[in-house]
Every structure is written in structure tokens, then in C-alpha cells.
Amino acid sequence: MTTFTTGTDTLTRDALAVLQPGFAGTTAPDWVRRRLGEGLASVALFGRNVATAEQVTALTAQLRAERDDLLVAIDEESGDVTRLEVRTGSSFPGNHALGAVDDTGLTRDVARELGRRLAECGVNFNWAPSADVNADPDNPVIGVRSFGRDTALVARHTAAYVEGLQSTGVAACTKHFPGHGDTSVDSHHALPQIDLDTTTLHERELQPFRAAIAAGTRAVMSAHIRVPVLDADRPATLSRRILTDLLRGELGYQGLIVTDGMEMRAISGTYGLEHGVVLAIAAGADAICVGGGLCDEDTVRNLQNALVGAVRSGELPEERLADAAARVRALAEWTAGVRRSPAATADPRPEIGLTAARRAVTVTRAAGSAPVTGPVYVATFSPAPNIAVGDETPWGVGAELERLLPGTTTGHFTGPGAGEAALRAAAGLRVVAVVRDEHRHPWMRTAVDTLLAADPRTVVVEMGVPQSAPRGAPHIATHGAARVCGVAAAEAVVAG
Known about the structure:
Helices cover 41% and strands 11% of the residues. It is built from 18 helices and 14 strands. The N and C termini lie far apart (68 Å). The relative contact order is 0.13. Mean pLDDT is 92; it is low at 1-7.
């Protein structure tokens, strides 16, 4: 294959400018620094790039020494999906908890404090919020990442989140357009299809995106989903009808359009990574997210070559690539300008995350339920995590209850027989059963049934979407599994 990547002409620089690659390590690799000098305008940080806030600050400073107006992106939804606090759990509850409180002022304050912390670390582009309406309670990938099932609620909190985050100079990226909430397939693994009629699409899925656009969201992320009522052939990320005709034309959106991770199987497994990237830019995307899996210089070179080659072959209009690159640079300019503005400096609110998590907790007490007064056994029932959440981030209430109730012990269980195993491990202690989306996992429901049959005093803590009927003594719903949600739940257990 002809190599196009050594030039510094406009075409090769534009091809680099539209890429948002990840990389390995907690310091900037030489190849990334070199590519920044050649036109790369964005990088993406993932959990593997994060050790401490101070280390991230040093990393972003190292990168900006090569390019001052660099976009540094991160997938920091907070709640269950955290990268800055991937090893400890988030200091902020996620969308579902904020939706449960339904105080847009609180949502705005939480997003502002999150933005302040990101900006302090040198991160200026956040792939959040999720504006998906969680229409399918069995959705395997959205769930607590959504503000809820009510369209109007999701719309008003999406707008509040965008306003709070962007007040700090961090660009919001509202996702996953045109709406990933009514899917039963995870697009990390396969290509979901949403069979909606036009009316439902416009009245439910699109309303939060309209609200985000009205609030000034600087970016929108496309979903790797097929929506036949809009385009029977191509998924949204690769669809001109969806990205250009609907999002740009009908909704009037003029900001940056970024793809979801292009290495996800919904795209790479069907179209191939390089061809998928060309199709996405041609459809109207401006920035290519790649590197949730490890990304290296060869990947970047191949994608750059694919874009340059597509322009030279006539498959991709040069004007479309130039327009995409210009939108990336315009967003970088905006973030740099707001960063230097005194108005972007928010007062620290370190307590706001725990305050919000406490407000999101709901407690249902069974008649005659006894208070918790001594050590308990915490049985955490763990489903397989989806890729967006990952398996590195701790969750639950065990550590906090061990602190509040000395003598408390904890165990983790999964699969058939989990309830019986937990009973044996508890050895007569009262059990606090911690679940996550019990309604989606029959084995988990059976485990809780087993514990309640053995001891009706069993406390149930639901840290996913509280879809199952409350039946613990008491039953505590946190609406998410962030670290602060675990703290708030443990406090509720001890409060009786």
C-alpha cells in the first residue's frame, strides 16, 4: 500500500485531525507526541491511562507541550462509568440517581463539579451525558447510565448536565444519537436494531437530543445502532440520512459529531475498522473515537492512510474531510477560549456527589423489620459487567459496612446456587444482599428468594435499575453503583 503519512500537506493533516485515538501508558508515548506535531488534534484517555489526578495532570501537560489547543477526551459519565476514578469508584452518582432525585439544579451542580475536576486535570472534552431514554428495562448496556424512562425528565436533565459541564470549559458530548435506550443488544458485541415508528422516534428518542442542542452541547456522539425507519441499510454512525439529513438538517445541529468507539463489533465486525472510518466521515461524522481497546501508531497510520486514499480515489469528498477537520479545530478553539475565561472557574463543591447520592436513596421498609444493630454478612451478587462499565471498578456496600459495623464480613457470589453459598458463608449472621439489576438475572432473583426464605430480616440493596418489587427488610434502592451510592446505602442500612 502506498504510504501517505509522511507529508505535512493539508490532506494528511486533515486526516489526522479527525482521529481521537487512545494509547497505552500513563505518560505520553513518543509516537503520540510526534503525531501531534503532524496534525493530530485530539487524544482519548481511558482507565489504563489513569493512576492519580496528579498523574493525569502531568500527562495532559506533557501532551499540550506539543500542541496547546489539544482536545483531551475522556469517557467520564460518573456513576457506574468512570475513568478518572476507575480503581476506587466514582465520587459522583450517575444519571439514573440524578433522575430519581429529579432536581435539575442538583444535576447542573454535579456536572459543574465534575467539569471543574476534569478541567483541573487538563481534560476538556467529556463523552457525556447519555441522553438515552431507558425504554427497555432489560437494556444490557444503558440501564443506570440513563436519567430514566420518562422522556421529559431525560430531556431536562440532559440539558442541565450540558449546561453545568460546559460552564467549566469542558465540552459535553451528548450520546448515543439517535437514542440507544430501546435496545436489547449491546453494540460492543453486535449491531442492535431499534424497530420504532417515526412518531415514537421523534416524541421519545429525539427529544433529549433537541434539549441538548438547545442547551448548546458542543458535541453529539453517534450510536452504532440500526434504525430502519430512518435508514434500513446503515447503522447511525455510517448513515448520511441520520447524521447529515436528520441531525444537521432537521434538528439544526452545527457542532461536532463524534462516533462511538469504532473498534466496537457493531462496526468493525461488519464493515472493518478502516472502511468503517471512511464511511463514518462520508456520512457526516467529524471525529473518530478509536482506542477503547489498545490503540497504537500502526492503527493511526492505517486509518490516516484509509482516509487519504478514499479522498484520492473519489470515495470521500475532500471538502467533507476538510469540513470535519475544521469542526474539530473549532471545538479545540472554544475549549481553549473558555479555559482562559474567569467565568469558567467554578468554586469547589467536593461534597456535592455524596449529597446527591444520599438524596437518590429510597428505602422501603417491610412491616416489623428489625433495625440493624450488629455485624452483618454482606453477600454481593455480581452480574457480568458490560464493557462500558468494565470490571476494574469496585462497587457495593461491603467496605463501608465493615467500617460502620465492626465484625462485618463480605463475600461475592454469582450464578446458580449463589443464594445457598451465601447462606453457608454467612454462618448465622444477618445478611445484607447486594444486587445489581436483579430483574435481568433469574439466578440473582433465586438467590434473594433463598435468603429471604431462610431469614425474613435479610436487607436487600439494589444498586442497578430498581425494576423488581421491593421485598427486603428493608429494601434500599440507590439507582446506581458509584462509590458514593455505596456509602449512602450503607448509611441507610445502619439507620435501620
